[in-house]
Amino acid sequence: MPLIPEEPQIHESAQGPRATPASGRVAPTPRPVPGPRPAAPPRPGRPGPLRPAPPAQRTTRDAAAAKPGPAGPAAPAAAPATPQIQLIPASAEGALDAAEEAVDLLLDSGRAPGDVLVITTGESHPWAAHELSFGEAAYWAQHDARDDVFYADAAVAGRAATRAVVVVAVNGGTDAAVAAALPLALSRAGALLIVCGDPQQINAVLGVGV
């Protein structure tokens, strides 16, 4: 059955990753919900958190009491959490605006700009087009700096590193390009993947009946 888009709205109380429906569909959700994230660095012009006082110096007796005993078997590593997937219904013409609004909401909620990667499947984001005019080296240097939101076309997004949140604007491109962009975006999302586009098209390119 096709997804039924809902009016976008954000729910601050809905935190943390959420499983994708068993059918393989990308479930439509009202609005981007900031997933689990590390503490955001202070933005320029804002004072950062106070540094905690150093711990009190231990005495010789304290150090002896704290000496660890024989090491036991290592605990198994925890499996990585599956990123939460959210869909914001939008037309191809409105997908980029929806993605921009999603980014604004994420930043307003406290998400650090360097946590966010935006991928476009059609026309490049104006920021990406502008920065690429100065050359690819300067463009990717800003990606490596990780101090701001980074925008990339789906064709080159494979070079991007993992970020906590990935936003995909399905603003055009072939069905094959969209189908390739979505798994790539999911592999780059540490906590949250937001897809802005037509739910019927997204379900169709993922091989789900409409």
Characteristic terms for this protein:
single chain; about 210 residues; alpha/beta; five-stranded parallel sheet; 6 helices; about 30% helix; about 15% strand
Short description:
This protein is of the alpha/beta class and 210 residues long. It has 6 helices and 5 strands; from the N terminus they run αβαβααββαβα.
Describe what you observe in this structure.
The protein has 210 residues and is α/β, with parallel strands linked by helices. It is built from six helices and five strands; from the N terminus they run H-E-H-E-H-H-E-E-H-E-H. The protein has a five-stranded parallel beta sheet with strand order 1-5-4-2-3. Helix 5 links the parallel strand 4 (163-169) and strand 5 (189-197).
Overall average residue pLDDT: 75
Helix proportion of residues, in percent? 25-40%
- Number of separate strands: 5
Radius of gyration, taken over Cα atoms and rounded to an integer in Å: 21 Å
**Backbone structural class:** alpha/beta
* Side-by-side strand order of the widest sheet: 1-5-4-2-3
Terminal CA distance reads 6 Å
SSE ordering = HEHEHHEEHEH
What form results from the Cα inertia axes? Answer: globular
Low-pLDDT ranges: 7-23, 36-70
Indicate the topology.
Blueprint: H1 60-65, E1 84-89, H2 95-108, E2 116-120, H3 126-132, H4 136-145, E3 150-153, E4 163-169, H5 175-188, E5 189-197, H6 199-205
